[in-house]
Amino acid sequence: MMVDPTLSATFPSEQWFEFLAAHASEEPEVYQALGFANFRLAVEIVPDSGGPATTYGIVFDGYDVTSNGELSDPAGFAPDATISGPLSAWTEMVDNIASHGGADNAHSLNALSIADTPLQVTANDPLGKDRFFRYAETLQTLFDATARRVPVDA
Q: Are 55 and 83 in contact (CB under 8 A)?
């Protein structure tokens, strides 16, 4: 699926996460160089004012990446790991990626989650959390690709 760079996708939205997945199919050599990944990630975005979180699903199957869109049943999605945090932290990261062509050291998924603040990685078992950090470079490459493909309307 070729992504039309003139299209806009507001973060967070199903369309924004579809752009993530589309990038992997557009530039498979980038992900092949990083190695295959078998991983189910839930991305949970918590409104700053409270209220119910919105969760999106991303599936890595070898070199293929698909977006499962907004999850009505995050537990039923059976993620290996969930990364969760306030909308303001997510928006700051996405804006930083757009401004710099990729996350700077202070705004990478790893930096924002390693101390469990402002983003937190949880999993039902230690292997799921380990997979998140094992595939951190692949995840960051995917998120950084939005700087080239998705005009952000945060």
A: no
Mapped onto helix, strand or coil, the DSSP state of residue 26 is: helix
Distance CA 19, CA 154 (A): 15
Within a 13 Å sphere around the CA of 82, how many CA atoms are in the beta-carbon half?
A: 20
Question: Do 92 and 78 form a contact (C-beta atoms < 8 A)?
Answer: no
Host H or E run for residue 97:
helix 87-100
Query: Residue 6 has what pLDDT?
Result: 45
The CATH number of 14-144 is 3.30.1050.10
What is the residue-averaged pLDDT of the chain? 89
Helix axes 136-144, 87-100, angle to 10 degrees: 70
pLDDT digits 0-9 by tens, 25-73 = 888 888 889 998 999 999 999 999 988 999 999 999 998 999 999 999 9
Pairing assessment for the beta strands 81-86 and 37-46 based on DSSP bridges: parallel
Q: How many other C-beta atoms are found inside a 10 Å radius of the C-beta of residue 70?
A: 14
